[in-house]
Specification:
By secondary structure, the protein is of the alpha/beta class. The protein has 8 helices and 10 strands. It has 2 domains: about 140 residues, 3-Layer(aba) Sandwich (Rossmann fold), CATH 3.40.50.300; about 70 residues, no CATH class.
Amino acid sequence: MTSARVRIAIRDLSKTYAAGPREVPAVSRVSFDIHEGEFVAIVGPSGCGKSTVLNMIGALIPPSEGEILVDGRRVGGAPPAGVGYVFQKDTVFPWRTVERNIALGLEYRGVPAAARAARVREAIALAGLEGFEEAYPATLSGGMRQRVALMRSLVVDPEVLLMDEPFGALDTHTKLGLHAELLSLWAARRQTVVFVTHDLSEAITLADRIVVMTRRPGRVKMLYDVKLPRPRDVIRLRESAEYLREYGEVWHALGEEFEGGA
């Protein structure tokens, strides 16, 4: 990935929140680059500012200090063009069917009806949601709703995809299935992905590189290149000696932060 151009540049990024009369530093002087087509995971203890960094990249909250550049342009105010976001809680609208939820972004962009319908059909097929086009979210499982939310972001072809613990509330079996689907979709499209997770196994399974953050205020403790070859079988991968070795290397750094916060 080092030969690819820098897509997202994060420079001395800090964020402080007001808590009554006090100021609470969430993130302190975070700097790293994300390259075009790279899948980067951010891990760290709870409250270390992982989601805060992601939200600043997406311009959902402003930094207190430092800057973020997407394709050389400073992020500020409106979200950067070509950026999609998948949140931890599925954000599907309960009054819209699966088909109409996925079509939402295309409607906002004024995509003609015929082209919109074709792209939604393709997205539904890719996500294995055939037969549920007219179903409402209340009738779907959590994993299916999260697939709808993911495809709603992907159907507009974002060049950068920000994902904030999107599978955190799901059981292990469902999560592994979605890992396989996400890797397949990413391999076909090669978006630049920034993926926040508290699950180190998830980070190693999915990512090219892992950003390990310290406990609050979050700083970058380690940038780790995942050396596992692609494509990855999300089930068999965890049985391999290579996976266990990489898990141990990252956990050595990450585990120190949990010990320090005890």
